[in-house]
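sorry to bug you again but im stuck and you know this stuff better than me. what follows is a protein written twice so to speak, once as letters and once as structure tokens for the fold. id like you to explain what the token line says about the fold, in plain words if possible. anything you notice is useful, everything is just below.
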Amino acid sequence: MRDRLTQLYDSAGPRDVVEIAILAVAIFLLLRLLGKSRGASVVRGLGLLAVGLFLVAQVLVGIFDLSVLGRVLDYLLTTLLVALLVIFQPELRRGLMVLGRYRLFRYLVPANVRPVSSRLADAARAMSIEGVGALVAVEREMTLGPYADTGERLDAELSSLLVRSLFAKRSPLHDGAVVVCGGRITAAACQLPLGQPPENASGQHMGMRHRSALALSEETDAVLLVVSEETGRISLAVGGKLEAVPHDQLGDRLAELLETRSRTRVQKSTVPDQPAQPARRAG
């Protein structure tokens, strides 16, 4: 047996080492991907058990030259892989969804922002008519993960009815902001930074939602959608500026902002310093 192991060791070349390394990396990435799903511990346990048994069986086949057993193991491996795909189909689906949210894949496959803008616009118009206040932060290039961590995690599909339900006055999550990342509602009841009231010559009062929207838009490139509870006015905050948007133009304006990458830093670097900032409009 020792001679057989020595023979196997001597016959291993650089090509075999590369193949083993590729397989090891592939198995590691697969386990890490599935580790973010609900059945993480089960997947890791079964995966490691299957890989360990298969390697031990292959070593025994190589040592004792069991060709028939080797063919049976090949068939069993194929059957095992298919069985794992069927059993852990929900976990695999969830893992692939997590993989698709990585920034690299966002660049490779641009997301369609029209459904996001239209659903948010429908919800904002309805809440404006009903007199319900709302604050929604939509992620663009800069991550909003730290702000989403301050609220309740949802990871739900974005819909107009869900947004309206979250901001309903009797909803336990109506206080705070809703964070939208990758076309999905990541979290609700999130705490955003509260900026100082801007110096406004007109002396108009600016509520906490509008101040938070301005503060976050100054710190990130996110698009902030604000619905005033008092007046029903709908506003968008981008790059430290607040603009009121008519109902019929809200969907197109949102789509335009979400389709355009953030130019805040470029604009700030090219515009010379001014003695005073222009007055911001309050919704």
Notes: The mean pLDDT is 77.
